[in-house]
Amino acid sequence: QVQLVESGGGLVQAGGSLRLSCAASASITNIDAMGWYRQAPGKQREFVAQVTRRDSTNYADSVKGRFTISRDNAKNTVYLQMNSLKPEDTADYYCNALIHSVYRDINYWGQGTQVTVSS
Protein backbone atom coordinates (compact mmCIF):
# COMPACT_ATOMS: atom_id res chain seq x y z
CA GLN A 1 0.00 0.00 0.00
CA VAL A 2 1.32 3.42 -0.96
CA GLN A 3 -0.16 6.63 0.37
CA LEU A 4 0.32 9.81 -1.61
CA VAL A 5 -0.15 13.33 -0.29
CA GLU A 6 -0.17 16.27 -2.69
CA SER A 7 0.49 19.88 -1.80
CA GLY A 8 1.30 23.17 -3.48
CA GLY A 9 -1.91 23.96 -5.29
CA GLY A 10 -3.51 27.38 -5.18
CA LEU A 11 -4.66 30.39 -7.11
CA VAL A 12 -2.29 32.03 -9.57
CA GLN A 13 -2.59 34.51 -12.41
CA ALA A 14 -2.04 33.48 -15.99
CA GLY A 15 1.66 33.42 -16.78
CA GLY A 16 2.56 32.55 -13.21
CA SER A 17 4.14 29.46 -11.69
CA LEU A 18 3.36 26.85 -9.09
CA ARG A 19 5.21 23.80 -7.82
CA LEU A 20 3.23 20.78 -6.76
CA SER A 21 4.67 18.18 -4.43
CA CYS A 22 3.67 14.57 -3.89
CA ALA A 23 5.01 12.83 -0.81
CA ALA A 24 4.87 9.04 -0.86
CA SER A 25 4.64 6.79 2.20
CA ALA A 26 7.00 4.27 0.61
CA SER A 27 10.32 4.43 -1.13
CA ILE A 28 9.71 5.72 -4.63
CA THR A 29 12.72 3.81 -5.85
CA ASN A 30 10.49 0.74 -5.62
CA ILE A 31 7.77 2.34 -7.70
CA ASP A 32 7.92 1.87 -11.47
CA ALA A 33 6.54 5.28 -12.34
CA MET A 34 5.28 8.38 -10.59
CA GLY A 35 3.01 10.77 -12.39
CA TRP A 36 0.57 13.62 -12.34
CA TYR A 37 -2.92 13.68 -13.75
CA ARG A 38 -5.52 16.40 -13.70
CA GLN A 39 -9.27 16.70 -13.89
CA ALA A 40 -11.04 19.89 -14.84
CA PRO A 41 -14.68 20.45 -13.91
CA GLY A 42 -16.95 18.43 -16.16
CA LYS A 43 -14.05 16.67 -17.86
CA GLN A 44 -12.35 13.32 -17.57
CA ARG A 45 -9.09 12.87 -15.74
CA GLU A 46 -6.15 13.30 -18.11
CA PHE A 47 -2.46 12.49 -18.07
CA VAL A 48 -0.08 15.37 -17.42
CA ALA A 49 3.41 14.02 -16.78
CA GLN A 50 5.27 10.93 -15.64
CA VAL A 51 8.76 10.02 -14.45
CA THR A 52 9.85 6.40 -14.43
CA ARG A 53 12.14 4.53 -12.08
CA ARG A 54 14.92 5.11 -14.61
CA ASP A 55 14.20 8.86 -14.72
CA SER A 56 12.62 8.76 -18.14
CA THR A 57 9.97 11.47 -18.45
CA ASN A 58 6.83 11.86 -20.51
CA TYR A 59 4.54 14.85 -20.89
CA ALA A 60 1.17 15.61 -22.35
CA ASP A 61 1.50 17.75 -25.46
CA SER A 62 -0.48 20.51 -23.77
CA VAL A 63 2.17 21.00 -21.07
CA LYS A 64 5.41 20.27 -22.92
CA GLY A 65 7.90 23.08 -22.49
CA ARG A 66 5.98 24.55 -19.56
CA PHE A 67 5.84 21.79 -16.93
CA THR A 68 8.71 19.78 -15.50
CA ILE A 69 8.39 16.62 -13.43
CA SER A 70 11.19 15.58 -11.11
CA ARG A 71 11.80 13.23 -8.23
CA ASP A 72 13.79 13.32 -5.02
CA ASN A 73 14.36 9.73 -3.99
CA ALA A 74 15.84 10.71 -0.63
CA LYS A 75 12.60 12.50 0.28
CA ASN A 76 10.29 10.04 -1.49
CA THR A 77 8.77 13.05 -3.20
CA VAL A 78 7.85 13.91 -6.76
CA TYR A 79 7.45 17.46 -7.97
CA LEU A 80 5.64 19.14 -10.81
CA GLN A 81 7.01 22.57 -11.65
CA MET A 82 4.40 24.45 -13.63
CA ASN A 83 5.43 27.60 -15.47
CA SER A 84 3.60 29.89 -17.89
CA LEU A 85 0.31 28.74 -16.48
CA LYS A 86 -2.83 29.21 -18.53
CA PRO A 87 -6.48 29.36 -17.48
CA GLU A 88 -6.99 26.00 -19.19
CA ASP A 89 -4.56 24.46 -16.69
CA THR A 90 -7.19 24.98 -14.01
CA ALA A 91 -8.01 21.57 -12.53
CA ASP A 92 -7.60 19.26 -9.60
CA TYR A 93 -4.16 17.67 -9.88
CA TYR A 94 -3.65 14.11 -8.70
CA CYS A 95 -0.45 12.25 -7.96
CA ASN A 96 -0.18 8.70 -9.22
CA ALA A 97 2.10 5.80 -8.34
CA LEU A 98 2.25 2.91 -10.79
CA ILE A 99 3.60 -0.50 -9.87
CA HIS A 100 3.88 -3.23 -12.48
CA SER A 101 3.23 -6.74 -11.23
CA VAL A 102 3.10 -10.10 -12.91
CA TYR A 103 -0.70 -10.15 -13.00
CA ARG A 104 -1.72 -6.52 -13.28
CA ASP A 105 -0.67 -2.92 -12.87
CA ILE A 106 -1.38 -1.38 -9.49
CA ASN A 107 -2.24 2.30 -9.31
CA TYR A 108 -2.29 4.45 -6.20
CA TRP A 109 -3.77 7.94 -6.12
CA GLY A 110 -3.54 10.93 -3.89
CA GLN A 111 -6.49 13.04 -2.79
CA GLY A 112 -5.67 15.83 -5.21
CA THR A 113 -4.72 19.47 -4.97
CA GLN A 114 -6.60 22.27 -6.66
CA VAL A 115 -4.95 24.62 -9.12
CA THR A 116 -6.81 27.69 -10.33
CA VAL A 117 -5.35 29.97 -12.98
CA SER A 118 -7.08 33.30 -13.41
CA SER A 119 -7.02 35.24 -16.66
Characteristics of this structure?
single chain; 119 residues; mainly beta; seven-stranded mixed sheet; 0% helix; globular
Give a written overview of the molecule:
With 119 residues, this protein is mainly beta. Helix content is 0%, strand content 55%. The protein has no helices and eleven strands. The chain has strands at residues 4-7, 10-13, 18-24, 33-39, 46-52, 57-59, 67-72, 77-82, 91-100, 105-109, 113-118. Strands 2, 4, 5, 6, 9, 10 and 11 form a seven-stranded mixed β-sheet that branches. It has a four-stranded antiparallel β-sheet with strand order 1-3-8-7, with no helix packed on it. Strand 4 and strand 5 form a beta hairpin. It is globular and about 45 Å long. The model has no long low-confidence stretch (mean pLDDT 96).
Average pLDDT, to the nearest integer?
96
- Summing up helix and strand content along with how strands pair, one would put the structural category as mainly beta
Strand/helix succession: EEEEEEEEEEE
User: What oligomeric assembly is this protein in?
Assistant: single chain
The number of helical segments is 0
Number of strands: 11
Q: How large, in whole angstroms, is the Cα Rg?
A: 14 Å
Largest sheet: 7 strands, mixed
Distance between the termini: 40 Å
As residue ranges, the low-confidence spans are none
Binned strand content: over 45%
Helical amount among residues, as a percent range? under 10%
Categorize the overall geometry.
globular
